[in-house]
Amino acid sequence: MTNERRHKRVLYAEASDLVQETHGGALEGLNCGVVSVASAQAALDELSTGEPFDLILLGDVAKPIDSDYLEVQLSMIKKVRLLDAHVPILLFSSIDYISQAKESGATDQMVKPAGIRDFMKFITPHLGDAT
């Protein structure tokens, strides 16, 4: 009997290279294979390849943050939910819009800025046996 942890696939959509690098590296330390993209469209392209993800992490993919920001984010959540009804969709965003996001299909949200420890506490419960 082995005690190996199952490798988890995480799709991380985040426009900021710095945020993506910092938080993506932390996820890799939790036995996650991270596919990082910088836009909502790139995330949808990755999702359409057919290889499933264990977690979708949606950061700020619409920059600069303007009046269209929520529309882009909520549309992305709805499209992801249509592709996969069960995958956790976690938001790590500069704007608190959890009620609208949950109506669209998101699982939970953490508002930026947040330290890496708080970020990891937020993510870990959604990774199951990877931690």
Task: Tell me what you see in this structure.
The chain has 131 residues and is of the alpha/beta class. The protein has a single domain, classed as Response regulator (Rossmann fold), CATH 3.40.50.2300. The protein has a five-stranded parallel sheet, sandwiched between helices. The chain has five helices and five strands, in the order βαβαβαβαβα. The longest helix has 15 residues. Helix 2 runs parallel beside helix 3. The protein is 38% helix and 19% strand.
> How many runs of DSSP E, i.e. beta strands?
5
Sheet with the most strands: spatial strand order: 2-1-3-4-5
* CATH architecture title: 3-Layer(aba) Sandwich
- Indicate the overall shape: globular
Give the integer mean of the pLDDT values. Answer: 84
Number of spatially distinct domains: 1
CATH topology: Rossmann fold
Poorly predicted runs are none
CATH class: Alpha Beta
Please count the helical segments: 5
Oligomer: single chain
**Kindly, what is the distance between the CA atoms of the first and last residues, rounded to a whole number of angstroms?**
18 Å
Strand content: 15-25%
Structural class: alpha/beta
Indicate the percent of residues in helices. Answer: 25-40%
The largest sheet is: 5 strands, parallel
Order of helices and strands: EHEHEHEHEH
**Radius of gyration over alpha carbons?**
14 Å
- CATH homology group: Response regulator
